[in-house]
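Ticket closed. Logging final result for BcpO-related WXXGXW repeat protein.
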Amino acid sequence: MKKLALSLATCAAVLLPIGAITLPTAAQAQPVVLWAKTPPPPPRAERVPPPRRGYVWAPGHYETRGNRYVWVRGEYVRARPGYAYRSPEWRERDGRWEYSRGRWDRDGDGVPNRNDRRPDNPRRN
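Final structure:
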């Protein structure tokens, strides 16, 4: 029994610092950026459903999963008063393709910063 407790304590001591270093906290959270070597396929044509009051249409887009592109269908997301929705996008940079997730922008510059008041925080009121 002592051997089991000792080995569990050793594993916890080894894994705890790794988790503390690699897991981001809410204060460090930033938009997810993915990289790909090949460009994404052309966007698919999507039929946009009729507008819904209090919601914004988030268009469909490609994401990478493993080594391939996967289409993510568009959907309505709840509107946030005072914020503008920025669609997910792919941009070429230094011969690689960079993906930025959709996000909310308060000051209209398209860059998440302190002026946006943490719009992507799911626990905000």
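DSSP finds one helix and nine strands in the chain. No further action required.
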